[in-house]
Amino acid sequence: LNDAPIGVFDSGVGGLTVLKALAAEMPGEKFVYLGDTARLPYGTKSAETVARYALQAAEALAGYGIKALVVACNTASAASLPAIRERLDGMPVIGVIEPGAEAACRVSKSGHIAVIATEGTVRGGAYQDAIQRRRPDARVSARPAQLFVALAEEGMHEGAIAEGVAHHYLDSLFRPPASAATRAGATGATAVAPDTLVLGCTHFPMLTNAIRAAIGPSVRIVDSAATTAKSVRERLGAGELSGATGRSAVRFLATDSPERFARVGSRFLGQTLSPADVELIDLQESRGRL
Ligand code: DGL
Question: Of 191, 218, 224, 250, which is most buried with the most CB atoms under 10 A?
Fold first, then answer.
């Protein structure tokens, strides 16, 4: 079992940012990465649909003999973790939301935490709940920032357009109009801007520079990839599951075009993938009964 791979699942190539962090944190482990590129984006779909897709993906990965599953997609983590845990009975299943919330609560001094994510993640309230469970006094301002997904996929993560979009989503959170601050002051309410920003979507770390340019130097940015990798290592280290000594290796699976997965995924992974490295699989066919 020690030598079995860790399954990593995302709606597409965004989760490669999490895979990269996992491989850095646990060199020597083997991974099977599944990107459900045929059905991306998950972020604009209903929670029911996302949960159905995520269960199919989790079952497919279980068929590869994995010892643990990392749900690298924020939207799928928000919509389906309890259902996946039930289905994979006993296997460690780790999502990205709890580790991100944990890190945000740790670094925020003021207790005002901003979260940007997909529509689905924000609507479900998973980050808001996870933060407030740990820190009941926290104030959470969550905003969907769907265009960031498209920008990252297009490779337009820097420059004037990316920065313009970052201002569009973030100015109202981090630079409230002076009149609003004055009103809040007059009523005694706090108009303190958030001191921490959670990147609650796999694609957003690609846009860190543009986001940083919009929010200024003092806000702490929490990227859940690194914190998730740490929590996976802790989780496996606590049991009999860690300690693989073999060469670190990744098997890539996608539900659509290996060519696009390799081209766009190379940017997310930070290393060149070739279409020949990516196996095409059909989740509906292999799991027709779902
Ligand atoms: N992987 C998704 C997430 O982290 C972003 C892309 C999508 O909408 O499918 O929420």
Answer: 224
The per-residue pLDDT for 186 is 47
Which of 38, 43, 30 is CA-nearest to residue 57? Answer: 38
Give the pocket of ligand 1 (CB within 6 Å).
10-12, 14, 40-43, 73-75, 118, 121, 149, 201-203
Task: List 142's β-bridge partners, or say none.
Answer: 115
| DSSP class per residue in 103-114 | HHHHH-SSSEEE
Q: How far apart are CA 1 and CA 265, in angstroms?
A: 29
- Residue indicated by tokens 């006993």: 90
Which residue has 């630079």 as its token pair? 175
Could you tell me if 79 and 51 are in contact, meaning their C-beta atoms sit under 8 angstroms apart?
yes
Q: What average pLDDT is seen over the chain?
A: 91
CA–CA distances in Å: residue 50 to residues 113, 134, 156, 200, 268: 26, 26, 26, 16, 22
Pocket of ligand 1, candidates 39, 115, 203: which has the most ligand atoms within 8 Å of its Cβ, to mutate?
A: 203
The first and second tokens of residue 21, run together, are: 């962090």
Q: Of 204, 201, 232, 254, give the one whose Cα is nearest residue 21.
A: 232
What are the Cα distances from residue 47, in Å, to 4, 50, 54, 108, 152? Answer: 31, 5, 10, 29, 23
Residue 70 confidence (pLDDT) above 90 = yes
Q: Rounded to an integer, what distance in angstroms lies between the CA atom of residue 281 and that of residue 284?
A: 9
